[in-house]
Amino acid sequence: MPEKIDQTQVKKVAKLSRLELTEEEVQQFTVQLSAILDYVEKLSELDTEGVEPLAHCLPISNVFRQDEIRESLGTEKTLANAPQRDGEFFKVPKILDDSSWA
Amino acid sequence: MDHLQYKVVVGLEIHVQLCTKSKMFCSCAVEFGQPPNSRVCPVCLGMPGVLPVMNKQALEYAVLVGLALNCEIAAFTKWDRKSYYYPDLPKNYQISQYDLPLSAGGFIEIPLESGKSKTIRIIRAHLEEDAGKNLHTAGNFSQVDLNRAGTPLLEIVTEPDMNTAAEVRALAVELQRMVRYLGVSEADMQKGHMRFEPNVNLIIAKDGIEYRTPIVEIKNLNSFRALEKSIDYEVSRQIDEFFETGKTLETGTKSTRGWDDVKEVTVLQREKEDAPDYRYFPDPDLVPVQLSKEWLEEIKSRLCELPIHKQLRFVNEYGLNDYDAGVLTADRSTAEYFEQVVAQGGDAKRACNIITQDLLKLANEKGCTVVGLRIPANHIAQLCKMVVMGVASATAATTITTIMSGSPDKPPEVIARERNLIQKSDVGELEAVVDQVLAENPKAVEDVTSGGKKSSKACGFLLGQVMQKTKGQANPKVVSEILAKKLE
Predict the structure, then answer these.
(1) Which residue of B has its CA nearest to A60?
(2) A36: left (phi over 0), alpha (psi -120 to 50) or beta
(3) Predicted TM-score of the model (pTM)
């Protein structure tokens, strides 16, 4: 049976997730992800003809909150887990391409 | 060489920040200019184990805009995750709407010069959350402030129906006026409440064949002026590029260019070889929204007369010109104030003059709206009557409004009396002054009666003398009539 996913796809998914994988890991994940996809594939045995796609697994809708302000964490707590900070800011490696916000 | 035949094609992607008190999916305050990272909680930080909960007000604001944009409002809508990795997006996905947007298939009318309008189709308008802010000014690293992360944003996408930079600007201004009327956004471009990203390309006719240039998306536009200028720049740049490289929509690539506000040029940011892979999927943390007919009707009842309709009505109902109607309807409260003045008996044209010329100037000086001057509408109505009846001159009206802005409770007649600003229109009283002036200036009288070149100048001189003697309080119209009668 052919693999559900090949190494090129694994590399692409890794890149999209900003993960750096070794060649070994690529091979390993290709096998593992294919096995997972095979498992999920069982679902397509079901006849879904005429069944509306589900937007959510719970049969509920319209869960809202009122537009009210509650206290935030504050700068110190917010930055407590930051790997690096610069004053009141999170500090991150220099962003060269600032256009990916779509 | 033949005149170059080309057509500009522009579609817009617009982000409008909704002015809710709290964020889209958590209770952090939405406030501009607060200390960095002070309006953040585990939800908008994307901590594990937290759950977002929808802000009802944000949804209703979005529906209101969808209705104003003549869109079909979806009875069933859901939330999707849009995956991308960026420091300003702590969850590594943005909560947005993909295949079931809140509203779609609408249109907006934009006013063009000389009272005409054009219809621009709206593809969709959906709700999403804003990202944080990256700052690149600190040196060899970037700073991230997440206060803005999670602010409700309405994304509006138009069809490429605009064909000039002026039309794009007109749409931007109209949309700003619309969301302000609806009270759903402050829509301040400088503060990033409204962000416009035009997609621009050209259809160039050459040797009987139509060529389409590659589409360019422009970013970093923070004023209407920049929006308009960037399109003009892009048009000439794309013409040059086409004749240099021959690249077309089919052979070239879509690119993103940033606007440089100082140099007034667009700068290449990146070329998109392939479409970004956002891997949308339904957000399991959020349940769908079902909008019942009753709820939709209730939201519909909050719609107000849209600015472009109000402007048109002001022209038809009050006989104002299109420009003045545009100035009056730029701000909803000012437009409503004008109508209150008219309802209290103020002449529409006088009221328009006083508001657009005197009150708006005073309001700008004070940094408030016309209504913020706190002058009761009936006082302005009285002032209009005084001007129409000749009790106050237009100049006196300006002086009176200035005083009113300092003491808003004082009626205009009281101010006029206190400051000797009552215009003298009594024929008998003015005749005496005219007679005196005529006696004192026989040379000018002769110039007028003998006719010829000097006549009108001398007449003006005599009028000026009467005004001087009455300390500017004589009604010039009445004086002119007396002069004409006496000198015929």
Answers:
(1) B287
(2) alpha
(3) 0.86
List every span in chain B annotated with CATH 1.10.10.410: 427-486
Cβ within 8 Å of residue B377, ≥6 positions away: B337, B340, B341, B343, B344
Residue stretches of chain B with pLDDT short of 50: 1
For residue A102, which of B24, B86, B147, B91 has the smallest C-alpha distance?
Answer: B86
B245: number of Cβ within 10 Å = 12
CA distance A81 to chain B (A): 11
Give this complex's ipTM. Answer: 0.86
pLDDT in tens, B398-437: 999 999 999 999 999 999 989 888 888 788 888 888 999 9
Q: How far is CA A13 from the centre of its chain?
A: 10
Report the CATH number at residue A14: 1.10.20
Does any domain span residue A15? yes
Question: Do the chains contact at A68 and B145, CB–CB below 8 Å?
Answer: no
Q: Is residue A26, in this structure, part of any structural domain at all? A: yes
Model pLDDT for residues B271-318, shown as the tens digit of each residue = 876 667 889 999 999 999 999 999 999 999 999 999 999 999 999 999
The whole-angstrom distance between A94's CA and the closest CA on chain B is 4
Q: Tell me if A19 is assigned to some domain.
A: yes
With CB atoms and an 8 Å threshold, state whether B288 touches A61.
Answer: yes
Domain hosting residue A34, numbered range: 7-43
Of A64, A100, A101, Cβ closest to residue B54: A64
Q: How many structural domains is chain A composed of?
A: 1
pLDDT band at A102 (very low <50, low <70, confident <90, very high): very low
Distance in angstroms (rounded) separating the CA atoms of residues B258 and B269: 6
Confirm or reject CATH 3.10.180.10 for domain B427-486, answering yes or no: no
Residues from chain A that touch B29, judged by Cβ atoms under 8 A, are: 69, 72
The string of pLDDT tens digits covering residues B238-254 is: 999 999 999 999 999 99
B37:A88 CB<8 A: yes
Residue identified by tokens 């690096």 is A84
How large is the angle between the packed helices B332-343 and B322-329, nearest 10 degrees?
110
B121: helix, coil or strand? strand
Kindly indicate the confidence band of residue A96, based on its pLDDT and cuts at 50, 70 and 90. Answer: low
Length of chain A: 102
Out of A55, A61, A70, whose CB is closest to B27? A70
